[in-house]
């Protein structure tokens, strides 16, 4: 079907009608009656006056439906390299993030609470098949970091290393969980 500028057309899959303002290659630019310019492939539009003509009388309805229901390959979503490396989960182990009040806790109690939280979150990530977890422990004197390394070292399916320096500085450890380890 040939189109010319000024034709009134309708879009097949949408309730959009407008006037052809530009024709280029296999695309038409139409201006809707609301004043929006939109571009469509020529195969996506028909002349509006065709609705009242005999064009549809000669078309088999089942043919039209089968054309609509044909499988169309979906475009895969491209993941940017930076997004590919983002952790699925972050765990902040700073004491004020874990508990509302540490007023009556000594250093030993705080450290044990932080380690219990880390262990619980790591077990959760393993169970939910989350591959990367970043544990934010802060810089401090390095006691929590050393204890975390000891904890992570007890797991066979875990590899750990310093997290992205630009994002976390020296105060975080990233844990990679191997998912295909058979017990």
Give the mean pLDDT: 82
N-C termini distance: 64 Å
Largest sheet: 5 strands, antiparallel
The proportion of strand residues reads: 25-35%
The number of helical segments is 6
Order of helices and strands: EEEEEHHEHHEHEHE
- Helical amount: 25-40%
- Sequence of strands across the biggest β-sheet: 4-3-2-1-5
Overall, the morphology is elongated
Q: What low-confidence regions span 5 or more consecutive residues with pLDDT below 50?
A: 50-55
Radius of gyration equals 30 Å
Number of strands: 9
Instruction: Quickly give the structural class.
Output: alpha+beta
Protein model, in words:
The chain is α+β, with helices and mostly antiparallel strands. It contains six helices and nine strands. The strands form two sheets. A five-stranded antiparallel β-sheet has the order 4-3-2-1-5, with no helix packed on it. A four-stranded mixed β-sheet has the order 6-7-9-8, covered by helices on one side. Helix 4 runs parallel beside helix 5 (about 145-155). It starts with 7 loop residues before the first strand and ends in a 6-residue tail after the last strand. Residues about 50-55 have low confidence and may be disordered.
What are the defining features of this structure?
about 180 residues, 4-stranded mixed sheet, single chain, alpha+beta, 5-stranded antiparallel sheet
State the gist of this model.
By secondary structure, this protein is an alpha+beta fold.
């Amino acid at each position: 079907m040939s189109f010319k500028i000024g034709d009134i057309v309708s879009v097949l899959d949408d309730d959009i009608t407008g006037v052809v303002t530009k024709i280029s290659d296999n695309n038409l630019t139409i201006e809707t009656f609301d004043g929006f310019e939109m571009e469509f492939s020529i195969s996506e539009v028909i002349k509006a006056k065709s609705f009242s003509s005999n064009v549809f009388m000669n078309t088999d309805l089942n043919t039209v439906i089968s054309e609509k229901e044909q499988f169309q390959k979906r475009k895969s979503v491209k993941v940017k390299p930076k997004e590919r490396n983002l952790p699925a989960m972050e765990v902040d182990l700073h004491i004020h993030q874990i508990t509302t009040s540490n007023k009556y806790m000594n250093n030993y109690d705080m450290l044990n609470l932080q380690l219990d939280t880390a262990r619980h979150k790591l077990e959760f990530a393993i169970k939910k098949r989350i591959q990367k977890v970043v544990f934010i422990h802060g810089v401090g004197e390095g006691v929590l970091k050393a204890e975390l390394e000891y904890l992570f070292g007890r797991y066979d399916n875990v590899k750990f290393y310093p997290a992205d320096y630009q994002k976390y500085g020296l105060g975080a450890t990233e844990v990679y969980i191997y998912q295909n380890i058979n017990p």
